[in-house]
Structure formats: structure tokens, C-alpha cells
Design a protein that fits this description.
The chain is mainly β and 351 residues long. Helix content is 8%, strand content 45%.
């Protein structure tokens, strides 16, 4: 089961057998993964700097790798240890938390990460440096029955455009300064965007679970609080979709992602593929799914008040040939006011 990804978990588990686990990595009777090979500190230093699937990882690491989303929460591993092997739970390059369970039980570790970070779960020798340690001597393996990631907060990074997208199967509470919208339709070539959720409104600051949204906020990082006990239904009129996991887009004839247009002069929802076909959408982000009648053959829909757009266009304009609508040439270093311009032969509207 080495070099295999299942449900966002990367398995790098060898098939080494011992007396307690003659079949190596999986005990069918107890239905658990068995780690019979220990990973030491030197091997982990190499593994943490290696890409998934690379020889540097597979030759040095024996265990599971899971991508933690930026934010806060807890990791609970149901486990049992045998012999000199300890359970190691390591977040990124931090020192591992080590634990020994002579009887099957839960080990829980809290986490707080400012960016997406790899979580490593492996069997470590008893002399490994740890942030916590309990050890009881007993054949050398770690049995893993289940792993549960329980996020309590999600760190949302809003770019200089002042827009991003978000999806969570659980409800989230928006912080102050953050608004979230659904897309309910297309009218006269423009998206119908409804900002139903507002972090500054205590009566409308909760986005129901399963709701894909367009986020509007000043460029910054914001912590969204995850509300596991909220059962409000997701709106049925929303054309945005998303998933907690990376997945192929579905539910429409044409698919759009939040991005700059091909000419880099517009920002909004644009085709991610040349013909608007399905693409792989990252976890906890949203995409726009339209039917053929809704799309009306449009390859994109521009958003308004995009702060990063003017700067981006200005940077490109320094090397551009620019004319105003009357045919007068304009210096590439000029600050363009609102209006229509011909930039490198293309008609561009500056807001």
C-alpha cells in the first residue's frame, strides 16, 4: 500500500511482517493499519522536505501523510502500541508528539497552522525527541484503527483582488469585515450575486453547511469559526458548488472558476478549460456551474470593484501600445482613468 492516495490521505506503508502482524500493513481481523517499521529523526528531516511519492519520502518514511487545512482544530488517532514503537504525530517540521497506548485508545493533539501543512503519522523509536511522552515497554509496531481531524476554525486568505471563494460542509461564522454571497442566476450577461451573509451583522453572519460562497473582504487572513452543531439548510437557489475534498466539477454544462481572464485584464468567474468543461476544484473552494441556457456561450463573468485589477493592468501597460477611444496614443506609464481603451489591439474597459 505504498505510494497510494485514498480520500486525501497519502499511504506510505510497507508490507514488513512480524509475529503480531504476519500480513504487514493491514490486520484484517482487527481492521487496522499496522506500522511495523520505525522512522527516526534523521529520516523524518529528509521526509519533511520531500514531495509526496518521491524516493526521498518513500525510502525514509513509513506511515500516513494528511494535508491539514490552514486553521485550528484537533487530531484524534485511535491506536495501540506494541514493544518499543511509539505513535508519532508530527505537524509540518515541528517536533512530534509521541504517545504510547498499551491498550487500544485515543490520542488527541490540538493544532493551529497559518497555512496548509502536512500531518505525518508514523511509528517512532523510543529515543525520539518529543513534545510529550509516555512509554510502557511491551513486539514493535503501532496499530492505527482510525484518524479523525476535527477543525474548529478555518484560516481564509483573501487576495489583493478582495475576493475569494469558500465551501465547507459544516456551518461557519464569518468574522467582522467579511461578506459572503451566493449566485442565483444570470441576467443580461451578468451574474446575479446576493450577499446574504455578513460578518458585521449578528443576525446574518452564519453560512449554512454545504453552502458554496463568493467571499468579499479586504486583503488579509481571516479566521472562520466552524459550527458543528448548526443545522440550517443550504440555500437551494445557489449556482455555486464546492466540496471538502478535491473533486471534479459537476452539476452543469459549463464550469467557471474565480480567476483572471486569459488576457489578465478582467477578474471574475472564467472558464478553467478552453471549452468550459469539467476541471478539478481544490478542497474548500467554490466554482460556478451553469447550464447551456444560463451560460449563453459566455466564457466568463467579470466582477466589479476588483482592487487588484488596476494595478495588474498598469504593470502590463508599461510595455503596451495604448490608444483611447478617439484613436489618440497614450503613454504606457500614464494612469488610465475610467473609460474604453485599445491596449495591444484589444478593447479594454477600465473602471
Amino acid at each position: 500500500m505504498s505510494n497510494t492516495t485514498v480520500n486525501n490521505t497519502y499511504f506510505c506503508v510497507d508490507n514488513v511482517s512480524n509475529t503480531e502482524s504476519p500480513n504487514g500493513f493491514f490486520d484484517q481481523e482487527e481492521e487496522c493499519i499496522v506500522l511495523n517499521t520505525q522512522t527516526n529523526e534523521e529520516q523524518m528531516q529528509t521526509a519533511c522536505n520531500a514531495e509526496l511519492g518521491s524516493p526521498e519520502l518513500t525510502d525514509n518514511f513509513n506511515g500516513l501523510v494528511i494535508l491539514l487545512q490552514a486553521g485550528t482544530g484537533s487530531i484524534t488517532v485511535n491506536t495501540q502500541n506494541l514493544g518499543s514503537s511509539q505513535l508519532a504525530i508530527q505537524i509540518g517540521t515541528n517536533n512530534p508528539t509521541l504517545a504510547y497506548q498499551s491498550e487500544r485508545g485515543d490520542v488527541t493533539v490540538e493544532y493551529s497552522v497559518n497555512s496548509d501543512t502536512y500531518l505525518y503519522i508514523y511509528a517512532a523509536p523510543s529515543n525520539t525527541t518529543a513534545s510529550q511522552r509516555t512509554f510502557v515497554a511491551a513486539a514493535n509496531s503501532v496499530k492505527i484503527y482510525s484518524i479523525r481531524i476535527s477543525p474548529t476554525g478555518f484560516l481564509l486568505d483573501v487576495s489583493k483582488t478582495n475576493y475569494t471563494t469558500y465551501f465547507n460542509s459544516r456551518a461557519v461564522q464569518l468574522p467582522s469585515g467579511v461578506k459572503a454571497a451566493v449566485v442565483t442566476g444570470v441576467q443580461a450577461g451578468s451574474l446575479c450575486i446576493d450577499y446574504r451573509y455578513d460578518g458585521d451583522n449578528t443576525e446574518a453572519n452564519i453560512v449554512p453547511g454545504g453552502t458554496a460562497v463568493l467571499i468579499s473582504a479586504a486583503s488579509n487572513k481571516y479566521m472562520l469559526q466552524i459550527l458543528s452543531d448548526n443545522t440550517d439548510p443550504a440555500p437551494s437557489d445557489n449556482l455555486l458548488r464546492g466540496s471538502d475534498d478535491e473533486e471534479w466539477t459537476w452539476g452543469g454544462d459549463f464550469y467557471y472558476k474565480l480567476s483572471f481572464s486569459k488576457d489578465n485584464n478582467h477578474f471574475g468567474f472564467f472558464w478553467a478549460t478552453p471549452n468550459g468543461s469539467a476541471f478539478v476544484c481544490p478542497a474548500h473552494t467554490a466554482y460556478l456551474a451553469l447550464t447551456q441556457s444560463q451560460a449563453e456561450s459566455s466564457d466568463g463573468f467579470e466582477l466589479e470593484n476588483v482592487t487588484g485589477l488596476t494595478t495588474r493592468i498598469a504593470a502590463e501597460n508599461k510595455q503596451s501600445v495604448i490608444y483611447d477611444i478617439h484613436g489618440r496614443r497614450i503613454s504606457p506609464s500614464a494612469v488610465l482613468s475610467r473609460g474604453i481603451y485599445i491596449i495591444n489591439g484589444k478593447k479594454i474597459f477600465i473602471k
